[in-house]
Amino acid sequence: MITCVVEYVVDPAKIDEFERFARRWMELVDQHGGSHHGYFLPSEGASDKALALFSFPSLAAYEVYRARFGADPDFVAADRIREESGCVLRYERTFMRPLLPER
Q: Which residues does the UniProt record annotate as the domain NIPSNAP (predicted)?
C-alpha cells in the first residue's frame, strides 16, 4: 500500500470553495481504486494549511489513477474548481507507506 499525503496552502477566505474541491476529489479517489482518508482543514485560529491523505494498493495503481488527470472529464471538472476559485495557493505531494498496528 502507498499513501499520498498532500499538504495544501489554501486561501483562508475561500475555504467553502476548497471544501467543494475536496469533496469531489474524495469521491473520485474512491471511485478509481483508492481509499480516501479525508481532508484535514484549518479549525482554530488563523491558518492556511490543509492536508489530504489517501491510499492506493500500489504505486502502479496510483499511476493508473493519475493517468486520468487532464483526460477524464470528471477529473478535469474537479480540478477546474481549484483553478477557477483560486482556493489552493500551492500544494506538495509526498508518498509514504503506513505502519499499522498489529492485530
A: 7-99
